[in-house]
Design goal:
Mean pLDDT: 77
Shape: elongated
Number of strands: 15
Low-confidence stretches: 133-151, 153-165, 317-321
Strand content: 15-25%
Largest sheet: 6 strands, antiparallel
Order of helices and strands: HHHEHHHEHEEEEEEEEEEEEE
Structural class: alpha+beta
Oligomer: single chain
């Protein structure tokens, strides 16, 4: 709230100071000084409104590191919503100016702790403190890669020998002919059947959530404040009164040999705290492996991987012969 107050005073000075200077410089008479000062003030207000709508900040907010962003996407709110937010403050000011001050102080009454004012609630936006820029622009946490390094593979050498078909036959790279690259189509087999007694049993992962609940999950699980699961997926809701977790925040995959987590391009991002004390930021589209004991931070909430149980059993084919 202190940064909000400083930003508001800075924005107010950008409106008042030029108008006062014009009143001192321009000779009074016929109202020219009043019209010029009023026009300057209106211009500054409109420019500030456009900056807040398109960039997420006024000059005062930019100076102290505040941003006005959409609650779900983290992007600027746009001109229509920025104008509506300003109108809520303006309408409140009609009540002997005190109403406008009450609206500006309304973040103090927000019981969720996110400091959302009435004018913020109307357009479903948040005023956040990001002195280092948007979360996506911040430097990623240094990652620690464990495991065996990939072996170095020498480039393949061209095939040396007799070229089938003669010297004029078409040759692909490294001396391979199209006939050698074409896959032979085989006939369908009818002598293979699945043993009904052997069915696939997936791995199970035990999860502990920050809201105190515990869950056993399998396969692909979408975790969030209110996730929407598709075919073959499971939705896992995480209680978050602060609304710091996106509706569908991350994808957790319990595979046959490992558990993976993937951030779904969220506003607050996902960070994995590994058992060895290191941290790894999840970049959207890049799954991160979770060892047992890892803690996944999502917004103000977290998920702990307690254990992975079971051994994957795949069905075996039996011949009818």
């Amino acid at each position: 709230m202190g940064w909000r107050f400083i930003a508001r005073m800075a924005d107010l000075s950008l409106v008042v100071v030029p108008a006062l200077l014009i009143g001192l410089v321009v000779p009074s008479g016929h109202g020219a000084d009043v019209l010029l000062g009023l026009g300057t003030a209106v211009t500054v207000v409109l420019v500030q409104l456009v900056l807040q709508a398109r960039r997420g900040w006024t000059v005062g907010q930019w100076a102290v590191g505040l941003r006005l962003v959409d609650h779900e996407t983290g992007e600027p709110v746009g001109i229509d919503r920025a104008l509506l937010r300003a109108l809520v403050v303006a309408v409140g000011s009609l009540a002997f100016v005190v109403g406008g001050l009450v609206v500006l102080a309304s973040p103090l009454f927000d019981k969720s702790g996110r400091r959302r004012g009435w004018h913020d609630e109307v357009i479903d936006a948040d005023v956040i403190y990001l002195p280092e820029g948007r979360p996506a622009d911040r430097p990623k946490t240094a990652t620690k890669v464990t495991g065996l390094a990939a072996p170095e593979v020498a480039p393949a050498a061209p095939v040396v020998g007799v070229q089938p078909g003669g010297e004029d036959a078409p040759v692909l790279a490294f001396g391979l002919m199209p006939e050698l690259e074409r896959t032979r189509r085989s006939a369908a087999r009818t002598d293979v059947a699945w043993d009904d007694e052997e069915t696939y049993r997936p791995m199970t992962a035990d999860l502990e959530l920050s809201d105190g609940s515990a869950h056993e999950v399998q396969g692909v699980v979408l975790v969030g404040r209110n996730p929407i699961a598709g075919p073959g997926q499971t939705g896992l809701r995480l209680a978050d009164r602060e609304r710091s977790v996106s509706r569908t925040h991350l994808r957790l995959t319990v595979g046959p040999i490992a558990v993976w987590v993937e951030d779904l391009d969220t506003v607050n991002g996902t960070v994995v705290h590994l058992p060895d004390g290191t941290e790894e930021a999840c970049e959207p589209g890049r799954p991160v492996q979770l060892p047992v004991g890892s803690v996944v931070s999502i917004g103000d909430a977290w998920i702990r991987l307690g254990a992975v149980s079971g051994e994957p059993v795949f069905p075996e084919s039996t011949s009818k012969r």
